[in-house]
Amino acid sequence: MRAAFAGTPEFASTALAAIHAAGHTVPLVLTQPDRPAGRGMKLTPSPVKQLALDLGVPVAQPRSLRLDGKFPDEAEAGRAALEAARPDVLVVAAYGLILPQWVLALPRLGCLNIHGSLLPRWRGAAPIHRAIEAGDAETGITIMQMDAGLDTGDMLLIEREPVAFDDTTGLLHDRLAALGARMIVQALADAEAGVLKPVRQPEVGVNYAHKIAKTEAAIDWTLPADVIERRVRAFDPFPGATFQAHGETVKLWRAQVERLGIAAAPGTVIAVDAQQLVVACGDGALALLDVQRPGGKRVAVAQWLQGQPLARGDVLG
């Protein structure tokens, strides 16, 4: 099968590698333009582009595919590349661009999306983060036949994945990427055999997984401790949960909910010694376990406390 591919991050590159390894012809890869990255802000190709180059697959990087949008020349070039590729199907995984109707209609078998949630639970850009933040007990992968809506297409394959009590977005992302890669290979085989059975999404239980913003990083100590702890895991590795200690912004990478019957204002240090730091929250308390100073490495809180004198009654921002 001629399976063109559209994707950008590591989540997508895992699927591209599996499609190629399964013996499908990948005539074209669409991915986001190179972005500045690293301390030198050097233009860096996406993981999908780098893999495509390694595999010898042609790459197109239009800033938009809308023929009536801001970059019509790039969209026209993208259309010409897709038409020349003659794909039977376009596989889409975390591409980052909205696909207009002409793209959806171009491949013989349409466009198949690898979506990182059990639709319709989390539609949108950040389903893995939001599942952890919400405390979902399970998530999974949905292979979806794309339509003009936002993650509203018919479901083709679904598999569930438990969310562990200590899962971070990074850990869950890797498991779901591997699951999605396996499932898209199965979906392509089923599509080729004509045995896929589309199922309409339920009308109830729809939530929108908004893209994670850096402004969400700052910890709100008035929230319940379990909510903050979930956010710490949901924002690992990006953007990281942060708090203020003596005017310094510190990242919190790991925490544990404590059920202590101590009344104190949210953000107040209620227990501290050489080994622990416990902070009052809106409901319950949070033991800070792993932290990171600006420019430093992630360390256990005991090591951080050696150079950061804190006392009971101090208030963190």
Please explain how this structure is put together:
- The chain is of the alpha/beta class.
- The protein has two domains: 3-209, Formyl transferase, N-terminal domain (Rossmann fold); 214-306, Formyl transferase, C-terminal domain (Methionyl-tRNA Fmet Formyltransferase, Chain A, domain 2, Roll), CATH 3.10.25.
- 28% of the residues lie in helices and 25% in strands.
- It is built from eight helices and 17 strands.
- The chain has helices spanning 10-21, 47-55, 72-85, 101-105, 127-134, 169-193, 225-234, 301-306, and strands at 3-7, 29-30, 35-37, 42-44, 59-60, 89-93, 111-115, 123-124, 138-145, 155-162, 208-209, 241-245, 248-258, 269-272, 277-280, 285-292, 298-300.
- Strands 5-2-1-6-7-9-10 form a seven-stranded mixed beta sheet, with helices on both faces.
- Helix 4 links the parallel strand 6 (89-93) and strand 7 (111-115).
- Helix 1 (10-21) packs parallel to helix 2 and helix 1 packs parallel to helix 6.
- The longest helix is centred in the middle third of the chain and has 25 residues, at 169-193.
- The radius of gyration is 23 Å and the shape is elongated.
- The chain starts with a strand and ends in an 11-residue tail after the last helix.
- Its EC number is 2.1.2.9.
- Belongs to the Fmt family.
- This is Methionyl-tRNA formyltransferase.
Indicate the structural class.
Answer: alpha/beta
* Uncertain stretches: none
Q: Which CATH class of the largest domain is shown?
A: Alpha Beta
Number of strands: 17
Strand order of the largest sheet: 5-2-1-6-7-9-10
CATH architecture title of the largest domain: 3-Layer(aba) Sandwich
- Oligomeric composition of the shown chains: single chain
Instruction: Write the CATH fold name of the largest domain.
Output: Rossmann fold
Rg of Cα set: 23 Å
Query: What kind of sheet is the major sheet?
Result: 7 strands, mixed
CATH superfamily of the largest domain: Formyl transferase, N-terminal domain
Q: How large is the count of helical segments?
A: 8
* Fraction of helical residues: 25-40%
- Mass-distribution shape: elongated
Strand proportion, as a percent range, falls in 25-35%
Mean pLDDT: 95
